[in-house]
């Protein structure tokens, strides 16, 4: 799509902030009003629109894309998204451990156990771990407690949590970042522990590395989105 506007502005409304292009309000792909909850997020979205050159490249507009997702998908299907995200607790990455080699077992214990211990203390919900590929059945009460935590996020923060959970493969790591227990790079390294251990022995596949870099960039964008939401 060719750029069809000259000026980009942020306008304050009684219930949020809108973006205008040549004075006309931006709408989401679902034709909803692009109403943003904080000035910081509105400024970030406006900057993406203003940065477009002759051609508009939606794939480069990460904050706009996440805001659209929050309004067009998550706000309209909040409980469905809650169920989708909370389901990760039943199969969380941190609960599935290697039984060999000893170095990997030790690394998983050192990096992953503190997160599980934090979650147990923070939410009063303990998850069980297992070695190997056989599934472990988690306590129903613990799963419901995690679902309640996820349900407590509004559409915008739930959008960020959805991105973190899918990107990290772990609800516990996602919540640890969302709640300030651990920085993004730490939870990211914890999520790729198995892969980096294997690569240390066998080398890196460039296609895998390229995919990982793109996933990391998406997580960084989600972290920026969350920061804009919390910058009142």
Structure description:
The structure is a single chain. With 232 residues, the protein is mainly alpha-helical. The protein has 2 domains: 8-74, ATP12-like; 78-230, ATP12 ATPase (ATP12-like fold). It is 58% helix and 8% strand. The protein is built from 10 helices and 5 strands, in the order E-E-E-H-H-H-E-H-E-H-H-H-H-H-H. The chain has a 3-stranded antiparallel sheet. Strands 4-5 form a two-stranded parallel ribbon. The longest helix is centred in the C-terminal third of the chain and has 25 residues, at 206-230. The mean pLDDT is 95.
What descriptive keywords fit this protein?
ATP12-like; 5 strands; two-stranded parallel ribbon; ATP12-like fold; single chain; mainly alpha; 232 residues; three-stranded antiparallel β-sheet; 2 domains
Here the CATH topology of the largest domain equals ATP12-like fold
Question: What is the structural class?
Answer: mainly alpha
Overall strand count: 5
Helix-strand string: EEEHHHEHEHHHHHH
Report the radius of gyration as a whole number of Å.
20 Å
The total count of helices amounts to 10
Mean pLDDT equals: 95
SSE layout:
Layout: E1 8-13, E2 16-21, E3 24-25, H1 39-51, H2 62-74, H3 78-86, E4 96-97, H4 102-123, E5 130-131, H5 140-151, H6 155-168, H7 171-178, H8 184-191, H9 193-202, H10 206-230
Parallel strand pairs: 4-5
Antiparallel strand pairs: 1-2, 2-3
Q: How would you sum up this structure in a few lines?
A:
The protein has ten helices and five strands.
């Amino acid at each position: 799509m060719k750029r069809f506007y000259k000026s980009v502005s942020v306008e304050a409304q009684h219930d949020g902030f809108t973006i205008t292009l040549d004075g006309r309000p931006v709408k989401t792909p679902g034709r909803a009003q692009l109403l943003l909850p904080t000035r910081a997020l509105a400024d970030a979205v406006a900057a993406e629109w203003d940065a477009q050159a002759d051609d508009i490249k939606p794939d480069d507009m990460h904050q706009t894309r996440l805001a659209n997702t929050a309004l067009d998908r998550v706000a309209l299907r909040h409980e469905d998204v809650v169920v989708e995200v909370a389901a990760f607790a039943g199969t969380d990455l941190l609960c599935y451990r290697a039984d060999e080699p000893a170095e990997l077992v030790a690394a998983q214990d050192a990096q992953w156990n503190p997160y599980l211990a934090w979650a147990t203390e923070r939410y009063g919900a303990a998850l069980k771990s297992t070695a190997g590929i056989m599934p472990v059945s988690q306590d129903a009460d613990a799963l419901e407690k995690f679902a309640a935590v996820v349900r407590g996020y509004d559409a915008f923060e739930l959008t960020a949590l959805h991105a973190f959970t899918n990107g990290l493969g772990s609800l516990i790591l996602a919540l640890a970042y969302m709640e300030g227990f651990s920085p993004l790079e730490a939870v990211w390294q914890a999520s790729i522990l198995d892969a980096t251990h294997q690569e240390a022995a066998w080398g890196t596949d460039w296609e895998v590395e390229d995919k990982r870099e793109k996933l990391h960039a998406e997580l960084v964008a989600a972290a920026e989105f969350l920061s804009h939401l919390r910058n009142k």
